[in-house]
Amino acid sequence: MVDVYINSKFVGTIDDSVLFVEDIKDLRRKGMISNEVNVYHNLDAHEVHVKTDEGRARRPLIVVKDGKPLLTEKHLEQLTQGEITWFDLVRQGVIEYLDAAEEENAFVAYVEENVTSEHTHLEVTPGALSGIATALVPFGNYNQSSRLIIGSKNQKQALGFYAANFHLRMDMDANILHYPQYPLVKTKIHDVTDYDQHPSGQNMIVAVMCYDGYNMEDGVILNGGSVQRGLARSTYFRPVSAEELRYSGGLVDEVSVPDKEIKGYRTERDYQFLEGDGIVYPEAKIEEGNVVIGRTSPPRFLSSLDEYNLSVATRRESSISLKHGEQGIADFVVITENEEGNKLVQVRLREERIPEIGDKFTSRHGQKGVTGILLPPQDIPFSTRGIVPDLIFTPHGISSRMTVSHLIELIGGKVSALNGRFVDGTLFEAESEEDLRNELLHLGFAQDGTEMFYDGRTGKQMLARIYVGNMYYLRLRHMVANKMQSRARGPIQLLTRQPTEGKAKEGGLRLGEMEKDTFIAHGASLLLKERFNADSVVIPICEKSGLMGYYDIRKNNQAISPLYGEDSEMSSIEMSYAFKLLLDEFRSLGIYTKLNLKNKY
CB-based contacts of 502: which residues, under 8 Å, 6+ apart? Predict the structure, then answer.
């Protein structure tokens, strides 16, 4: 007897489990029961599991009977002519959806040539085992799996043309690439997903070589001339918004240019870009501290007595200004209402982003790197045919990562550019490397993809032949302009008196335990002291009790002991404020924190 479970719930037993499972599959293929039912026969445990619950990942496969797929040439002709659809094939039982459990009982062939009498199913396409983003990587089957995953993830961070109505949108962190291009080496998924409508990269000429160490550790070198002509240039959009909030008692915020009588009024210079309605005018160049939307709010915490006192009822300033390190040009202004019916003002800022040192680039194969240098055009190596690379890639990135597809794309891109056609690099169905190399040979180039190069600085011929070709490169959204941060002095936290954290709060850069160890290893004691006294404080300590004292204002700020008053000798001790805070917290627990003082000398 075999136990039967429906959605992991025991419902009964049967005698002939094989016949039972076959019957369910037949009924499903004939459309007698829902095609969302899946059945799994666990022979070892003598169990049959029928699954109908939601949340299962299911995928389509072509049904194979007696060593022949049910999908015929006639079906394909009817599909092409639009006589039938995909859903008709599912209804006819030619294609069925399997979940992870039922797939345990299936024997799936990748290609039709491999189908035997033992097979139960055939893949719709061999590339179906990857997702959409992964299928966009050309020649993916020549890649190491982890790099293929990184390559698919990197494409999601690339700058491109994300929406055709971007000029009307108020998205948070929007980037638009100025000249996006369709890849020369594409896959079938590029056609299916209409990639030409929203491309996110550019075809660059890439040379694989070293150049004075500026591209070591995955760095890339950019041609300064190409950047001046618009290579990988983009615009960064960011919205700033303010709304007129309503408060109890009928009081409201007001978007306007604040009067000088208002509490918290800034300087006139801060309001210089505002028009009469209190909103910045379009195309104004704004920097940190400048007000973008002027606003005043009613006074806080009005008590019943204060309502009749005119002097107290002055409005306060609550304008929206640019934070530390922000800048931009006012691009677009919208005045509208939010869900509550309050007035909402949105200003979109834009900033042109030209590639600079530290900006991140990647190919579609997980070969990411940051710009090491922008070379002047005259210093860039050039080939005997006068070809100058836009980007120089390090040869050391290939050996350990084994991204052979990166190298094949270079040849494919070269063939595509020279022949004026797209090269197909679909997973498991790509054009063969041998054909591409032969085609390159017929076009008059070396079939190994290398060319003779000359040094742009000396004019001398290089000893090695340089591997060069075309490649689809992506500029990623991680830009130095968004991440650069520095500080000398600035705001501190109220509790610990240490510098604030984070770029937006004008925070300090933390030197942690490991950085401290490097200073100690170098014996840099003065630097260590300087770096670790951001919150140094001098505290009077009672030498008798070892407790912290205080300064009495009535007695000319004399240091007083909490136990012995004026009778004890007090010493001024320098310590970290965080340590003083720790002592305070210990004392609040009733722990006697006695400091035993010794003379330095």
Answer: none
Tens of pLDDT, residues 58-95: 999 999 999 999 999 999 999 999 999 999 999 999 99
* Greatest CA separation for the chain: 108
For residue 599, being part of any structural domain is answered with no
28-38: per-residue pLDDT in tens?
Answer: 999 899 999 99
Burial of 588 by CB count in 10 Å (0-12 exposed, 13-18 middle, 19+ buried)?
exposed
Cβ–Cβ contacts within 10 Å for residue 406, how many? 27
pTM, to two decimals: 0.85
At 336, list the tokens: 């509208």
Sign of CA dihedral 218, 224, 225, 230: positive
Cβ contact 369:362 at 8 Å: yes
Q: 221 with 370, same domain?
A: yes
Q: Are residues 336 and 271 in the same domain?
A: yes
Contact 353, 479 (CB under 8 A): yes
**How does pLDDT run across 324-378, given as a tens digit for each residue?**
888 999 999 999 999 999 999 999 999 999 999 999 999 999 999 999 999 999 9
Residue 249's pLDDT is 81
Q: How far apart are CA 170 and CA 347, in angstroms?
A: 9
Residues spanned by the domain of 380: 140-233+357-475
To the query of whether residue 218 is one of the catalytic residues in this protein, the response is yes
pLDDT of 302 > 90? The answer is no
Boundary residue ending a domain (456, 475, 494): 475
* Residue position matching structure tokens 């742009």: 456
- Both 335 and 382 in a single domain? no
One of 26, 171, 196, 218 is an active-site residue; which one?
A: 218
Count of structural domains, the chain: 5
Tokens of 521: 């290893």
